[in-house]
Amino acid sequence: MTNEGRAQALMLVAQYVHARRLDHPVRVAVDGVTASGKTTLADELSNELTKLGRSVHRLSMDGFHHPRARRYKQGRHSALGYYEDAYDFSSLAQHVLIPLGPGGDFHYRRAIIDLATDTPVDEPALQLQQSAVLVVDGTFLQKSEIVDLWDTTIFVHTSFDVARRRGVARDAAALGGITQADHAFKVRYHAASQLYLDEASPAERASLVFDNDDLDQPSVRMVHPESP
Where is the signal peptide (predicted)? Predict the structure, then answer.
């Protein structure tokens, strides 16, 4: 088994992001359906950008969930509830994307909630250099309320069957077993992802699409290139 193909694909993505030179930090979204491989790609991209000499900060949408009562108000198995209520995109815009964008003060918060304990987080804001890159991984990152606040969007394209197998293997222990995890992915997480694909067409709107069904031989497609 070789990782040469993946290394080449990662290099292409890193070089694309590295070429972006703005008057504020570059805000990068790594988007995709649940269990598509977003977090892994975001970590790999951050490492490659660091090798290229960029200052890179990582942020996960885990820290920008709504409280549990809001997340499950439409039911623990509701796809619409997951799509509408899981993430606090208003806070992400207010505390991260807007201050790191044009005219901002380059300060941002890493989280507003501790997902495990369901308690608010109130940590001091961090400051980025103008030349820095912020890499954010999460689901639904091209929803209408924040789609225009990114400088680069990478959509991790993974088929639902492949993503479900990976997700079930990853989350079975947390979700009560393989059968329960498979059900959760079908009726909640991936049903919500389908709502997102139908509404936002994220693969068509992204800067780059990272085809990730084959982890060792992914491919990269440029969709909407931006100016450096």
Answer: none
